[in-house]
Structures are given as structure tokens and as C-alpha cells.
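INFO batch 0412 | record 1 of 1 | parsing
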Amino acid sequence: MDDWRSRLAGWRARFGGVWLLWAGGAVALLGAGALWLMILVYAPGPHATHRLVYFAPGANFVQIAHQLDKAGVLRSERLFRRGLLWLGLARQVRAGEYRIPARINMAELTRFLLNGQPVLYPIRVIEGQTSAQVVADLRANPLLRGALEEIPPEGSLLPETYLVERDTPRQQLVARMQAAMRDLVDELWQSRPADFPLRTRQELVTLASIIEKETGVDDERTLVSAVFFNRLRRGMRLQSDPTVIYGLVGGKGALGRPLRRSELQRRTPYNTYRVGGLPPTPIANPGAASLRAVLAPQAKNYLYFVADGSGGHVFAATLAEHNRNVAKWRTWQRQQKAR
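INFO prediction complete | emitting C-alpha cells
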């Protein structure tokens, strides 16, 4: 111990107060460096507006930091990258597209990426689309990835608006649509009345798909439902044009022209002018409103309906009344053609 103290005394005598200056300088440099780091970490970001940044699946922390720097949201790419590494957060940033708030600093940005929700985009499936039409739209959507090899069974997809992240697999979204349809149909089937005339969930969806194609007016769905139930109970054929069209074009959806008389006479499993009861499968993917209408037909004795020229329909309980309504509809058509 005495030897160590004598050496220290010798250094002091030889170098004077210089060692103190060096020690103080080192502390000052460390303090200045820490202050500089704090300024970089907590200073507002250089971006005056929000920025969209996309991290591909499998991106590592180096690529993530580079993408953020390229988008102009970092004060220091190297510091941010090392910060993710030092804090053990390098693998915790999810893939996806993020809307980075304007002026967010690097500390806030770290919390945002760990806790924030990637940007979600709406994908709408329109009520009454066939499964082939839905698949064609999904295949053409650039937000999605992956192949769709098969067309799902008709009536198995629930039309609604789905929020998805960029690069969601197409097959995953289809599975989500199918699960949504199964859940809703199961819920409705469990709540059906004791005297419900349909035997299976498939028949429920089939009738709902016909209602969906017959009318787009919300207030009419339960009236159309009443017409078809009344016909089924009486053993009358449904005589629904959309079922005939489906038998002619299948999943393509639209015929693109009026039905011909010869086509109404053509026997297919879907021609409800020639075949009794429901067609063998749904003819489209019905929405929730049409599915619910199957379980809530209005207490009306209607057996017929025809377009009224305003986008809706006029209903009738007797054939004579229906024929008068058809005559009015044809008069309206001739007037429109003359104009």
C-alpha cells in the first residue's frame, strides 16, 4: 500500500495537475456525449407530415432502421439501429405497413412500432356476388398476396367489409370470410322457429341467395321472403329469374341481357320455372340482411311480385292482380324505350 501511495505522489510531483484536467475532460466528454444522445433520441423527428413505411415479412432490425431512415423519420439511423439492438427489441417489430405520425421522436417511434397497429385497408365483398366473382376481385387486388387455386363453394362467403393489412394472404382472407358465414348461419339456425319449413342450413343460404338477387331494397327482403315461403308451402314453383340465369352462366354472375322465352323453358337444375322447390345450391353469396329475412318473412299472403320501375317491386296475392301489375310494368318499359 505504501509503495502505491509513493508512486501516486511521484506522478503528482512529476505531472502536477494535468491528470486532474484529463480526468475532468473525460467526464465532460461523457456528459456531452450523453447530452448529444438525449437530444437525438428525444428531439422531434425531421418529418413535417406523416409517412407510410412498410416492413416486409422477415425484415431484420437493420432493414427496418434503413426503411425508416429512407422515409426521413430518423435523426440517426445508426443510433436507432443500435438502440433496438441494445434494448433487445430487434425482433419485436411486426411486419406490416405503418403510418408514422409527424414529428415523432425516436423514443416515441420505438414505442409506436412495438405497440402500434399496422395500417388496415378495407376490402368489400358485395352482397350477391358469386364466389367466382369474389375470387376474381381478390386475385386482382394488389394489397393481397398468395394464390387462390380453388373457387369456394357458392354461398360460403359472407359479404361485408373486411379490414386487412397489406400483404395478407388471399387464402387467409377467404378462410376468414367462410368462418364469418358459418358463424352467422349457425347463429340464425339456432334461433329458427319450431315450425321452420327449411330442413338444412344449406337451404337457408340458398333461399337467402335468391332473395339477395331478387331485390336490393332492404324493406322488401322480408316481403320477397314471404312470397317464396308461401309458394313453397303451396307446392308452387318459385319462378325466379335469377335462378334461371345462374343455371345458364353459373358463377359468372350476370347474363348481360334479358332472358329469352326459350331460356325460361330450358330445363336445368336451377330453372325454378321447370323444377319444383329450391335449386340444388345457392346462386350467390347472400348478405346478412337477406339471411335474416329468411327467418322473418312478413305475414302477408303475397304470391307474386314484379318490378315497379322505381328500383323496387309491387306485390300481389292473386294472379289477376299480378297480371295488372305486369301490364303496368310493360307500359313503363315501352315509355322508357320511346324516350
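INFO post-check: The first helix runs from residue 2 to 15.
INFO record closed
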